[in-house]
Amino acid sequence: MVRSDERPGGKRQRMDYDDMDDEDDRDIRPKRTLASTVVMPSIETKSREERIEEMNKTEKKEVTTRNRRMFSNLLMGTLTRFQKDEKKIQNVEKIQAEKQKEVEKRLEDKKREDREKIMAERQKLFDERREQEKELRALQRKKALIQYAEAKKEHYKLLRNFIQTQTKPTLFFAPAKHSMRSLELLKASEKAIDGETNLYKRLWRKT
After folding, report:
1. pTM, to two decimals
2. 11, 108, 159, 206: which is deepest, by most CB within 10 A?
3. CA torsion, points 70, 75, 78, 79, in degrees to nearest 10?
4. Which residues of the chain have pLDDT under 50?
5. Cis peptide before 175 (omega within 30 of 0)
6. What is the maximum span of the chain, computed from C-alpha positions, in angstroms?
7. Measured between alpha carbons, how far is 175 from 162 in angstroms, rounded to an integer?
8. pLDDT tens figures, 29-64
9. Cα–Cα distance between 54 and 39 in angstroms, integer?
10. Which pLDDT score is estimated for 145?
11. How far apart are CA 167 and CA 130, in angstroms?
12. DSSP of 35-93, one letter per residue?
């Protein structure tokens, strides 16, 4: 007896059931849509592009930051080196200025010493010349006094034979013939003349 649902060629019918079951199973199972599989790669690609873009931005930012840092370091290094060089130059200039100042000071001191030496020599020569002139004047004065004393001595020597008056100006006379009074006056005159002569002798010795 053949079942109503059987068909000639039972095997084929079984296969049909299997096919039906497979179709039913496919209906029951979650269906895999092609849309999801197609869309996902686009989403992933977009996200990847965004990430790449972000990475590029980040990399650019890092590069910019690194470049700025390198430039800043280079600038600071250059500035520091420039400051050091400037400081060295200033130190060298300061040392040179101090040396120049010291040289100028030595030259000025030498000039001052030379001027003082010349002035001292001039003063010495002036003092020596003045002393020589003083000595010369003293010698001339002494010579004049000696000559004067000698002349007075000879003069009073001649006057010893004359009587000196008490009047002013003094007069000398010799009587034609002496008396007692004239002889006394003559002795008195001789004494006075001897006093004057001794005075000039003392003056001559002092010179």
Report:
1. 0.40
2. 159
3. -140
4. 1-18, 20, 24, 34-43
5. no
6. 242
7. 8
8. 555 554 444 444 444 555 777 777 777 777 777 778
9. 22
10. 80
11. 46
12. HHHHHHHHHHHHHHHHHHHHHHHHHHHHHHHHHHHHHHHHHHHHHHHHHHHHHHHHHHH
Quote the pLDDT of residue 112. 93
Residue 127 tokens, joined: 């003092």
Tokens of 77: 């290094």
Tell me the CA end-to-end span of the chain in Å, nearest whole number.
201
Whole-number Å distance between alpha carbons of 19 and 21: 5
Main-chain dihedrals φ then ψ at residue 68, nearest 5 degrees: -65, -45
What sections of the chain are H helices per DSSP?
10-28, 34-159, 180-206
Residues 6 or more apart from 156 whose CB is under 8 A from it?
Answer: 193, 194, 196, 197, 200
Per the prediction, the chain carries an average pLDDT of: 76
Q: Which two tokens stand for residue 48?
A: 């990847």
